[in-house]
């Protein structure tokens, strides 16, 4: 966002003005400055942790916004003082996109307004007294309402910046923002409530700070998981892009095979983790084509027996390429065996029936289905029902009947809406040749 649209700039300035108005009562009220200072320093420390030379390389981006501290302030302090807690940390937070100064002002205004709203609701429902009362469960009611207010204000402001700065349509700008924020903020709200209760207890602020240690560690682990998952996705995306560049006629094929494989997995009732690995298998099943000469992959005419043998090496090439990628797990066997056939006439090892790994049997069906329903330089797309009829005809000899049945049921329930479509080509050939060519590749 190097060039800020005027409407977005006006929106940010209005938010900043609203935040300043919320902060104004601090100057004339009996503000508990020691508590404000301690919470502000603590929140600033959370924001700056990612830039620390000692641990900065290990703290993933996105860990700075540590809502328990802000919500604890909303539960402990007057609204204006609670809003002030967010400002110093937001103004020094790391940002990798320009204009950095305007983004920091926006973030400070957004957090201040959301925290002020939470504190107002909490106080209006008697939450301040409930935090100190011996009947602790009653404190959950105003705290829960404060969390809802925080989420509502945060989502409302976020939707506005999407509509003004990113030009997202108004109907879509706020869609899903509140539900996505509610879960994490509710968890952080419970931690903030624990901090507030301990703060007001005989144990004092030091005991309240101890709540943050396990909370911060859990957030760090969660962020590490997401960073690792993103790295996996980038690895797979790079490999698929390399295959698409080398074999342009199959562009999008890998993603569609992954999508069809996932549909089969869900129909079979696979656990989410296995289904995700199976999707990886579908996406990467043709990665071995990187080891096949490009002239063979792009050849329009029929393949010679020698050329066919070279292309049939691609499952082994692919297995070698991904053998050291640990997170692929069972996907590696699918990459190696996705051209095996139930009757033993497939390659590379001529496995039969249950000897073929389950993932490979799924990917084989998904691969053949997409090959038949996609238009390429040497084939024309067939209707889905024709492709399913062909898969059913070959079930038992070439394909696992269980996997074919799962795909038929899944398509009957959800239809086929591939996220990526193949490049259209002018050349078209009779259907029998399509089947032979698709099977060989």
From TrEMBL:
Signal sequence, start to end: 1-29
Claim: Disulfide bond is one of the keywords in the record: no
Keywords: Hydrolase, Membrane, Signal, Transmembrane, Transmembrane helix
Alphabetized Gene3D superfamilies for the sequence: Hypothetical protein af1432
Transmembrane segments annotated in the record for this chain: 66-93, 105-125, 145-165, 177-199, 205-223
EC primary class: hydrolase
EC number(s) given by UniProt: 3.1.4.-
Listed PROSITE patterns: HD, HD_GYP, PROKAR_LIPOPROTEIN
GO molecular-function term, one example from the UniProt record: hydrolase activity
Protein's recorded name: HD-GYP domain-containing protein
Native source organism of the sequence: Streptomyces aureus
């Amino acid at each position: 966002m190097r060039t800020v649209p005027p409407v977005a700039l006006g929106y940010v300035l209005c938010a900043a003005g609203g935040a300043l108005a919320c902060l104004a009562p601090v100057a004339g009220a009996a503000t508990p400055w020691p508590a404000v200072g301690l919470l502000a320093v603590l929140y600033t420390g959370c924001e700056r942790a990612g830039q620390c030379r000692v641990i900065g390389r290990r703290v993933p981006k996105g860990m700075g916004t540590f809502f328990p501290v802000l919500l604890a302030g909303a539960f402990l302090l007057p609204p204006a003082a609670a809003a002030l807690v967010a400002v110093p940390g937001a103004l020094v937070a790391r940002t990798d996109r320009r204009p950095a100064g305007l983004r920091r002002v926006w973030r400070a205004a957004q957090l201040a307004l959301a925290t002020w709203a939470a504190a107002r609701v909490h106080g209006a429902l008697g939450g301040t007294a409930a935090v100190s009362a011996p009947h602790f469960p009653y404190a959950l009611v105003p705290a829960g309402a404060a969390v809802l207010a925080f989420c509502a204000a945060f989502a409302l402001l976020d939707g506005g910046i999407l509509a003004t700065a990113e030009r997202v349509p108004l109907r879509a700008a706020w869609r899903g923002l509140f539900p996505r924020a509610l879960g994490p903020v509710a968890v952080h709200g419970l931690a903030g409530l624990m901090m507030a209760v301990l703060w007001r207890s005989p144990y004092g602020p030091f005991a309240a700070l101890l709540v943050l240690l396990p909370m911060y560690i859990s957030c760090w682990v969660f962020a590490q998981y997401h960073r690792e998952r993103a790295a996996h996705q980038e690895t797979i995306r790079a490999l698929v892009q390399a295959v698409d560049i080398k074999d342009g006629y199959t562009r999008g094929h890998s993603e569609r095979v992954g999508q069809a494989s996932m549909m089969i997995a869900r129909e079979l009732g696979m656990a989410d983790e296995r289904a995700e690995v199976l999707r990886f298998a579908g996406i990467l099943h043709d990665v071995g084509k990187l080891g096949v000469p490009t002239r063979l992959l792009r050849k329009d005419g029929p393949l010679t027996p020698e050329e066919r043998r070279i292309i049939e090496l691609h499952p082994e090439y692919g297995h070698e390429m991904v053998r050291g990628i640990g997170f692929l797990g069972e996907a590696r066997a699918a990459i190696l065996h996705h051209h095996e056939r139930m009757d033993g006439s497939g390659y590379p090892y001529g496995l039969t029936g249950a000897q073929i790994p389950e993932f490979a049997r799924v990917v084989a069906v998904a691969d053949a289905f997409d090959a038949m329903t996609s238009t390429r330089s040497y084939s024309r797309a067939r209707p889905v029902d024709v492709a399913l009829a062909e898969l059913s005809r070959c079930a038992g000899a070439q394909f696992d009947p269980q996997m074919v049945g799962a795909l038929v049921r899944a398509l009957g329930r959800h239809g086929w809406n591939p996220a990526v479509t193949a490049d259209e080509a002018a050349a078209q050939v009779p259907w029998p040749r399509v089947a032979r060519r698709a099977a060989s590749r």
